[in-house]
Design a protein that fits this description.
Elements lengths: L1 H23 L10 H14 L22 H58 L8 H19 L10 H12 L4 H17 L6 H16 L7 H4 L1 H4 L14 H4 L7 H24 L5 H16 L4 H27 L1 H20 L23 H8 L6 E3 L4 H8 L16 H8 L1 H4 L1 H11 L3 E5 L7 H9 L4 E6 L3 E6 L5 H7 L15
Parallel strand pairs: 1-2
Antiparallel strand pairs: 2-4, 3-4
């Protein structure tokens, strides 16, 4: 019987990992990704030992100061790109994501068994894999899981104090890889706060060790090229945000704009279930609940409610916390008695989900599954190749989303008008220049005189209310000629002697254009 249980558990774990990969390995949408800029950051550092400290890639506000808090990630991404290309980046991101997930999944298994942990995982899977693009935040998921695991083991007396020194050591990497490094301090702080409360002010060795590591980790955060400014960047970044970024909006706001997005509903359901497991655990066996988990669960739940970019980190922490709450509610003895029945059910359910996934039946519910694969979407670099082959020149007026793509392909020969870093531009730039010049023809003419644009280069699927109307006006503007368009980008050039040959060869009749839907996928 034990051998049968172990086999079922092994089957469940195996299919959980396979399903995690199937849902998470999605082709890179390079035209709207930050990845191009991160790769250029890495290239500049490795070639010139340059770390960007100003709005270096733009000609509009080139001296505007900026803290490049993710510069270290760019080095890693660029090294992988140099050796393995974009396919290698996809595989690398999947491996890091899988390792991050394993920290939380293993804890969940130890708390409630394979079956319960796997059921919770399947419920949270759409949220865990909300953000599948190569981003520096994958390092935050990995390091958050590592910090949590180390502190749990130390709390359980399974690791000695010396292992806590991994935390400030890895903080030195984290602060240079992604702005979410402050989560490491939050995680340590949750365990420290729990210790202070339970010790009722009496400082035992455990508490003193945590205080020491907590302070040491703060000092470690200062070890970055920007010093104190880099260490406080997470707390100040929204002080200079003149542009409303989709990932920083909440679910309730976005569901009014983006319809038929299933994970919005899944998020709300899982948030309610997450809270209910706490209520049940508190009612049944409140002495079994971890205060550190309570603090962390509440913190990440609030973050996920505030912005969709935090849904993944919430789901990762929800996995072991919900497992602990369920275990506290029913007890390991009860869960152990029904383990075999649960194991058979879960193993069968996971195999069923796997079969639905590989046959494409889940694509209707989760459209992203249709884009499973590695590397870039086909043809994403064609517009940049056209620009370079035909010798087009700036100044370029480009939209927000495609900035990172243009930085990768055209810098340093051409600089961008804007890119997808709101913190790298002044609030006035967005509120008085970038947005008004697409809404107001008078402002557009003023900026055209000021910057003397030669090319307009837009990502086709930007979901702003002004971009489609702006492009429609330019296509019908006799001063501009559309010369390239595909699924990802549109290029227009100004009618002048410099562009005459390109216009003669490639001009697209304006009758060929029509307004396109907002959602490509």
């Amino acid at each position: 019987m034990k051998a049968y249980s172990k086999l079922l558990s092994l089957v469940s774990i195996t299919f959980c990992l396979i399903i995690f990969i199937l849902f998470g390995m999605i082709k890179i949408d390079f035209s709207i990704s930050d990845l191009g800029r991160h790769l250029t950051n890495g290239r500049l550092f490795l070639e010139n030992h340059t770390i960007i400290r100003t709005n270096y890639y733009s000609y509009t506000e080139p001296d505007f100061p900026v803290v490049t808090h993710h510069w270290g990630s760019g080095i890693i991404f660029y090294l992988i790109y140099q050796i393995f290309g974009f396919n290698g980046i996809s595989v690398f991101v999947s491996i890091i994501s899988l390792l991050a997930f394993l920290f939380f999944y293993i804890v969940a298994i130890k708390r409630a068994g394979v079956s319960v942990a796997s059921l919770i995982f399947i419920s949270l899977l759409p949220l865990i894999n909300v953000r599948t693009e190569p981003r520096p935040e994958i390092f935050s998921y990995l390091l958050a899981g590592f910090f949590y695991w180390i502190l749990l083991k130390f709390k359980e007396n399974k690791l000695s104090f010396k292992f806590l020194f991994f935390l400030p050591t890895f903080m030195i990497f984290w602060v240079n890889f992604h702005i979410y490094f402050f989560l490491g301090i939050v995680i340590i702080g949750a365990f420290l706060l729990e210790a202070l409360i339970l010790k009722r002010g009496r400082f035992g060795k455990y508490t003193l060790y945590l205080i020491f590591i907590f302070m040491l980790t703060h000092f470690a955060a200062l070890i970055n090229p920007f010093g104190f400014s880099g260490a406080v960047a997470p707390y100040k970044i929204f002080n200079n945000y003149g542009y409303k970024v989709l990932e920083n909006q909440n679910v309730w706001y976005l569901e009014k704009i983006i319809t038929n997005e299933p994970y919005f509903l899944i998020f709300k359901i899982m948030l309610v279930i997450f809270v209910l497991t706490y209520i049940l655990g508190w009612y049944m066996r409140k002495e079994k609940l971890s205060l550190a988990d309570l603090f962390l669960g509440g913190f990440f739940a609030v973050l996920s409610i505030m912005a969709i970019r935090n849904i993944t980190i919430f789901a990762l922490f929800a996995l072991p916390i919900m497992a602990a709450n369920i275990s506290a509610s029913f007890g390991k003895k009860i869960l152990g008695k029904i383990q075999d029945m649960l194991s058979s059910t879960v193993a069968g359910f996971l195999i069923f989900i796997f079969l639905l996934t590989i046959t494409g039946s889940l694509v209707k519910i989760f459209p992203k599954l249709a884009f499973f694969g590695i590397g870039l979407f086909p043809g994403e670099n064609l517009s940049a190749e056209f620009f370079k082959k035909e010798g087009l020149k700036g100044p370029i007026f480009n939209n927000y989303d495609i900035g990172g793509y243009l930085i990768f392909h055209l810098f340093p020969k051409e600089k961008v008008f804007v890119d997808n870093r709101p913190e790298a531009y002044s609030v006035d730039f967005f509120q008085k220049v970038y947005i008004p010049m697409q809404n107001d023809e008078q402002v557009w003419k003023e900026m055209l005189r000021k910057y003397n644009f030669n090319t307009i280069y837009f990502q086709r699927w930007e979901q702003t209310e002004w971009s489609a109307q702006f492009l429609s006006r330019r296509i019908n503007d006799p001063e501009w000629a559309p010369v390239f368009t595909d699924l990802y980008a549109i290029i227009l050039v100004r009618r002048n002697k410099e562009n005459a040959e390109v216009i003669k060869k490639f001009e697209i009749p304006k009758e060929n254009f029509r307004l396109v839907p907002k959602n490509k996928h």
